[in-house]
Amino acid sequence: MIIPKAIPLKNEELFKLAMRHRSAASDPVHDSYERLEFYGDAVLSLVIAQYLYEHHPDWDQGMMSKARSSVVQEAPLAETALKLGLDQLLELGPGEESTGGRERPGILCDIFEAVIGAIYIESGLEKARWFILEQLHGFLAQVSSGDISPNDFKSRLQEIAQAMWRLTPTYRLTTENGQAHDKRFSMQVLFDNEVMGEGHGRSKKEAEQSAAKDAIEVIERARRLKQDPQGFDLI
Known about the structure:
Double Stranded RNA Binding Domain; about 55% helix; Ribonuclease iii, N-terminal Endonuclease Domain, Chain A; 2 domains; 3-stranded antiparallel β-sheet; mainly alpha; 11 helices
């Protein structure tokens, strides 16, 4: 397996481990990316927290927490994994492959964090920090400019629903799977008890954002076609 040039990692076996989903592992604990992903998640959170602390001395704890959450979440990390081409290197079992696991944002997010964990193990914190800041500089620039909610789809959906139908979206948890350290949640967003969107994430909040994003896309498609997605009067 060829390691992408943008990833400062020499140990091919460690990189292969970072790319191996539990569905392709003989031993999910020791032969999949899950332990590396756990490690990488902690390193990523530390690096982003340090960056925000050093670059924004006037921000309070709430501002820094919100900014970190905007960067360290599924959508930016999955997008970065795609940019690196990790989706093409991901090792999946036949079942996960057939159900679209290679394009699943949660898995793409996981392997990006697993790569961070691998870099940290091989080269230490400074190399991992360089890689994280290099790959996420665009998202960090966005939050540094004051846009600390670039992916706040819930707020956007609330505004759309109020403007179009005078309705408030509600959210419903549909499934909760995984071990305590690796939970996956599925949510639906409803308008007047009608399902408008569905989403998934590693927390309930993340799944709600994903569902809101799905609903916004449904509404935007319907508006382009001048159709009503749920029988309400478009404005």
